[in-house]
Amino acid sequence: MVKNIGSNVWKSPPLVQGQRVYVASIDDAIGGKSKIQALKAQSGETIWTFHTQNSVKQKLAYSNGLVLATDMGGTVYAINEKEGKLVWKKDLSGEGFQDT
After folding, report:
1. pLDDT confidence of 31, banded at 50, 70, 90?
2. Separation of CA 2 from chain center
3. What are phi and psi of 81, to 5 degrees?
4. Cα 75 vs. chain centroid, distance in angstroms?
5. What element of type H or E holds 99?
6. H or E segment at 30?
């Protein structure tokens, strides 16, 4: 499968979980293109898109129904795998835990 997600991907390999592929994109110009997308593994169709504050250049992780990502600003996101909704985020710079 080949899919154009509308932004660059760098250093963050796709994460395959079941019938889904999760990809993270970068936008160092802070133009609103930093995101995580869930795609159907067979067709490449976009299931959901979650925008991050900064570029994601680290490896994505999966645990108990959550897609986990850390952006370049030091924020960790836990995103529900099915709907792409934020479950929680934590700023690793020391500002505390933010529950949604």
Report:
1. low
2. 18
3. -65, -30
4. 12
5. strand 96-99
6. none
